[in-house]
Specification:
Layout lengths: L17 H13 L9 H10 L4 E2 L6 H8 L14 E2 L7 E5 L7 H10 L5 E5 L1 H5 L21 E3 L6 H16 L15 E3 L6 E3 H6 L1
Parallel strand pairs: 1-2, 1-3, 3-4, 4-5
Antiparallel strand pairs: 6-7
Helix pairs in contact: 2-6, 3-6
């Protein structure tokens, strides 16, 4: 059953007509009323992307760079990232800054499972991405993507605070395109690898064949 909204100044037939809505908004603007139009998805994504709460999870030197981002010189409070939580139930993302050993891996996975959906993972530094200088060691996980799905990779050993800020801005872009009402979220079944040229984009299978 279709629900028909009742608005005195707007017939139902014109409710989905953008020109009629724009005309009403223009009349309100001329009368000194500030009106912003948009979809509910845009409003929710705007609020979520600018209030990403990170779970405090720093295991090595990359955590010092994360602390530097929160200090006065870089101040990631400008983007709404300054709230860090000690409980996974209150966090939106895990920023894994440091080495994950085989002994730490079950704990890391448990914290990820305890987070509420939607949740995100940011891998900071070479150790979290691929094991870093300890890749050949017997006790280090060769990338946290073997344990949990990763949304953003921030390379470096350790990465500078500017790189962490850029990685968080990329996560913001990902959050802003998500949909809650109608439609499906965009998903990439295979990672896209850019070969240095903007026109040369190949899938992971093509790179393996080469």
């Amino acid at each position: 059953m279709e629900m028909k909204p009742k608005i005195k100044s707007l017939p139902y037939g014109e409710f989905k007509d953008n020109e009629s809505l724009e005309k009403i908004v223009q009349q309100l603007h001329e009368g000194g009323v500030n009106v912003v139009t948009g979809s509910l998805d845009q409003m929710i994504d705007w609020g979520r992307s600018n209030s990403l709460w990170s779970l405090t999870f720093a295991t090595s030197c990359c955590g010092i760079e994360f602390m530097a981002v929160g200090c006065a010189r870089y101040d990631f409070a400008r983007f709404g990232f300054e709230v860090t939580r000690n409980s996974p139930r209150q966090a939106d993302l895990i920023m894994c800054a440091g080495t994950i050993t085989n002994k730490m891996a079950p704990v890391f996975k448990r914290l990820y499972d305890q987070m509420a959906e939607p949740k995100y993972v940011v891998a900071v530094g070479g150790c979290a991405i691929s094991g870093g200088p300890f890749k050949s060691s017997y006790h280090v996980v060769r990338g946290i993507n073997e344990i949990v799905p990763v949304d953003v990779y921030v390379p470096g050993c350790p990465p500078r605070p500017e790189a962490i800020l850029y990685g968080m801005m990329q996560l913001q872009r990902k959050v802003k395109v998500e949909k809650f009402f109608g439609g499906a979220n965009r998903k990439e079944h295979k990672p896209i690898i850019v070969n240095g040229n903007e026109n040369e984009i190949s899938s992971s299978n093509e790179c393996e064949k080469q």
